[in-house]
Amino acid sequence: MTTLASDGGTDSWIPDGVTALAEHAPEVATSFARLVSVRPSGVNDEMLEGPEVAAFADQFRVDVSVIDEQLRAAFATATGERSVAIAQMVWISDVAPRVHAALDALFGPSEEWPGRRRQPVADTWGVIDAFLRSVARLDALDVTATELVRLRGARQHHCRICQSRRSAAAIEAGADAVMFDAVDHYESSDLPDATKAALALTDAMIWTPTAIPEPVVAAVRELLTPAQAVEVVLDVARNAANKIAVALGADAATVTDGIELFVTEADGGLRVV
Prior knowledge:
With 273 residues, the chain is mainly α.
């Protein structure tokens, strides 16, 4: 496994989250600004703010794995044929504050993040997919650390299909089942300290996004470069798109035994091999 390494300490960290995103991931900054500025066409505020959607969104935010059939059915009844697009909108509304909070915790508070006005789009998933692909093209992290961050998120969200997959690139780089299982007890594992810092940030973004512990911030700033830290934040956001499938009960694994491998294509798309 390639070891993550610092590039010179806190002096190299730029002053706020917005600037960090633009500096270290400019293409993602553009796709993220687009992501947080859209809403599904044909969906009015009354539907988005209805009690069934609000209850679904609240549980989506707190712990998506606890959404049950009763909550899911009430959401589907209230949203009808727009249920998938509205679930995607719920994800956008959930993930954006997590990115804001994490980057601001690491780099300093931003005066203003983009996305105060939302424009209707016919294909919400197309906008989401463009963001996901732009994140996947980042390369400050080594492939093994990227995969461990992905797998930690998959297990925290209890996404069945994500837990059943492994990165072919990480395995080719030397990752094995022991290393993958170590994400469940990474604090006491023999994973590199920098990887533990990345996984601790992953947990904080999932469970305490508005109150990331100072020791987590300090460890990230000590052990990762600014570009690596930005990439971890964005990887957590990208991986959390699995919450849409989990929330809708559409996350069943495509294998019943063992795992399936995937590769990340040059354009950021995923292909099962």
